[in-house]
Write a structure and sequence with these properties.
Helix content is 40%, strand content 22%. It is of the alpha/beta class and 228 residues long. The strands form 2 sheets. It has a 9-stranded mixed beta sheet with strand order 3-2-1-4-5-6-10-8-11, sandwiched between helices. A two-stranded parallel sheet has the order 7-9. Helix 5 links the parallel strand 5 and strand 6. Helix 3 packs across helix 4.
């Protein structure tokens, strides 16, 4: 497959790019900073410089041309303020969805967050609230489009080595999950067209990744999943 990853230099995105490139997929990573290109090239990912906060839909659609799938893994980052939660975590995801439609790329996998789509806890600070609101709005926009979307909402992220086992359900994620395991789950979602239309919550758990994805599909459809 040819897969375009928005936010290509992010920690999850780089892990995902490495996994996809290692098995022979063609991977394009959209980055804002030209200085990040060498890191992506070392991963086996082709870097394309594009600022999703300023690009037009046509600009992004041109990058997506010929792709089989897009993954939104961009984020304003923990040091950013409320304004960039809106312009990156919400608006950039909307832009990518609109560009995918224009480019004829139906498969869209969204890396969302725990808490999206749910009421905020009373103790949430302004930055976290803005982030969750932005991700919720982005998820809702993507889910309203004529796309084969999957929304993945990971629990709190860690940089511990991946375990290869997770919990993947429709219930709100709690606890933690490694970025390694998130990347593995994203590969499995890309390989499983029947996950289109699912909102999945991800945390550490007992099930091997492929089994967890299969169970998520069977829970909804009652039928075994079909891999690409």
């Amino acid at each position: 497959m040819k897969i375009v990853i928005a936010g290509g230099h992010g920690q999850i995105a780089r892990r995902l790019g490495q996994l996809l490139a290692a098995r022979g997929d063609s991977v394009v990573g959209i980055v804002r900073n030209p200085g990040h290109g060498s890191d992506l090239q070392a991963d086996g990912t082709e870097p394309v410089v594009c600022d999703l906060e300023r690009a037009s839909c046509d600009d992004v659609a041109a990058i997506l041309s010929g792709a089989d799938a897009v993954v939104f893994a961009a984020g304003a980052g923990p040091g950013s303020g409320v304004a960039r939660k809106h312009t990156v975590d919400h608006q950039a995801a909307v832009l990518l969805a609109d560009a995918a439609l224009r480019a004829g790329v139906r498969r869209y996998v969204m890396v969302s967050t725990r808490g999206a789509g749910s009421p905020l806890p009373a103790q949430a600070d302004d930055i976290w609230a803005a982030y969750v609101h932005a991700k919720t709005a982005a998820d809702n926009h993507v889910m309203a489009q004529d796309l084969d979307w999957t929304v993945l909402r990971p629990a709190a992220l860690t940089n511990e080595p991946g375990t290869g086992t997770v919990r993947l359900t429709a219930e709100r994620s709690i606890g933690e999950v490694t970025r390694d395991d998130v990347a593995q789950v994203l590969v499995a979602l890309l390989d499983t067209p029947a996950t289109a239309g699912l909102v999945l919550e991800l945390a550490e758990g007992p099930d091997p990744v492929d089994k967890a994805v299969s169970h998520a599909v069977e829970t909804r459809t009652g039928q075994p999943e079909q891999h690409r």
